[in-house]
Write a structure and sequence with these properties.
272 residues, single chain, three-stranded antiparallel β-sheet, 23% strand, alpha+beta, nine-stranded antiparallel β-sheet
């Protein structure tokens, strides 16, 4: 007799596939996967090597969260086409889950970086940093846009890009550099959403890669114009030409209770 035709005990077969023998007993009870034979002397379940591919397929599908009923339907009409179709559906779902986890990881890394910045920052410092090009989703606002309207605009965009939770993205506001240079420090014209792994497409706002002037401001909103005056003076003293937009983003909302403790990160592209 071929060795592969010999029977294995339920314990041996379970060990070979790295599962508990109770799993095999349950699969038998619900009619999902049955033993090759029952020992007539003691009633023990017996399996053979040729059943391994079927069990491995079941275990793979269960790992992909395929329901028992779906697996039973597949086994009743088992074919290459049926398995290909089922796997394509699950691969697509798995890709979505992977993208979600990658987005969550990116957000966590951003929060961690913000916390590191909080622990080491000098609020009075203005510095020049390097940043990579990014794609941002933006919505237009003006001085007349109410907070409720801003929330509605942001909600529409998050739904458009299938953003499951607000914490999966970073949010901020934008002021044209020309407005700052003209002394209009409250001329917010856009809100932005930075969604991890967002690929380029028409209509997105592209932040340029290169040098940025970075500063921080702590306190209520009324003091921001003073900080911008300091930024403009710094740029002039160091022969730096500001261009594009100023990008403002809060970095400590999740660790404060008072608005006076709120810290805004300000980043502006520079030339020179």
């Amino acid at each position: 007799m071929n060795k592969k035709d010999k029977f294995l005990t339920i314990g041996q077969f379970a060990a070979m596939h790295g599962i508990n023998k109770k799993t095999l007993m349950w699969y038998d009870e619900i009619g999902l996967f049955q033993p090759a034979a029952i020992n007539p002397e003691n009633g023990y379940r017996c399996y053979n090597y040729h059943q391994s591919p079927i069990l491995e397929t079941i275990l793979l599908l269960r790992e992909l969260d395929v329901s028992v009923r779906e697996i039973q339907d597949f086994l009743r009409d088992r074919s290459a086409f049926a398995l290909k179709t089922l796997l394509e559906e699950k691969i697509a779902a798995l890709d979505l889950q992977i993208n979600h986890l990658q987005a969550v990881r990116t957000t966590l890394c951003t929060h961690r970086q913000n916390m590191e910045t909080l622990l080491t920052m000098d609020l009075s410092e203005i510095s020049v940093i390097e940043k990579k090009e990014r794609c941002l989703v933006t919505v237009d606002v003006n001085r007349e846009t109410s907070f409720e309207e801003e929330v509605e605009l942001i909600t529409v965009e998050t739904e458009k890009y299938h953003l499951g939770r607000l914490h999966e993205a970073s949010y901020g506001s934008m002021i044209p550099v020309t407005s700052l240079q003209n002394g209009c420090f409250d001329d917010y014209c856009k809100l932005f959403i930075e969604i991890p792994f967002l690929s380029y497409e028409a209509g997105l706002h592209i932040t340029p890669g290169g040098k940025y002037l970075r500063a921080f401001y702590k306190g209520e909103w009324g003091g921001i114009p003073g900080r911008y005056r300091e930024i403009l003076a710094y740029a002039k003293a160091h022969n730096l030409t500001l261009h594009g937009f100023s990008y403002e983003m809060g970095i400590n909302e999740n660790v404060i209770d008072r608005i006076e403790d709120y810290i805004v990160q300000i980043e502006i592209p520079v030339m020179g």
